């Protein structure tokens, strides 16, 4: 079967633990593109934290796309946004009131990928890591210090895996009208309802006139499940969470052993 589109998560999927793309992953992706298959990186990261990786693979131009911010934004490689769903400043204010009441470290991201949090008591290692990864710095601001029309792509509650295990059900209950998902070690993220990678993939496929059955999706964590489920073939990484493997059609090798490249070689390269 010839797949027309491959959607690939980044952290712990395309990238090794050293945040690098292996030679086999790069080679297989480029061979797939040479055969006419479109490659779309699909990540919780914002544009700037994804662009260099995409560019290194040869994913360029107005007719190539990235799904960023966990599915809240779809943009082409020139930075033109073609799809966007955000959270209002009213939500941002209520969220900050909630995390302060419960003393939870947090950060939020705006459309440009800037990271915001409150005073220094709310800055932890995960907030710093997210700001560093996004390459946009860390802004110490309160919601009321920002324009009334200020919007965010997601709100993030940070903490150790044990701490997030303890509070995930509670956060889901408190934000039941939103999409709440664990996206990586230390991050519990809140998006507008019906904003996820799967919905973004469906939207982009429709715009590109590609049927879902002609899509191969590869991922490793809970926030990839919606993408794996809508695709014609869903591939879980060898290092994927148990629930991700359960909904996938195939389990490839792990992210440190060319899992993406092995999957493309098996399903796409003839």
TrEMBL record:
<protein>
    <submittedName>
        <fullName>Putative phosphatase YxeH</fullName>
    </submittedName>
</protein>
<dbReference type="InterPro" id="IPR006379">
    <property type="entry name" value="HAD-SF_hydro_IIB"/>
</dbReference>
<dbReference type="GO" id="GO:0000287">
    <property type="term" value="F:magnesium ion binding"/>
</dbReference>
<dbReference type="GO" id="GO:0005829">
    <property type="term" value="C:cytosol"/>
</dbReference>
<dbReference type="Pfam" id="PF08282">
    <property type="entry name" value="Hydrolase_3"/>
</dbReference>
<dbReference type="InterPro" id="IPR036412">
    <property type="entry name" value="HAD-like_sf"/>
</dbReference>
<dbReference type="InterPro" id="IPR000150">
    <property type="entry name" value="Cof"/>
</dbReference>
<dbReference type="GO" id="GO:0016791">
    <property type="term" value="F:phosphatase activity"/>
</dbReference>
<dbReference type="InterPro" id="IPR023214">
    <property type="entry name" value="HAD_sf"/>
</dbReference>
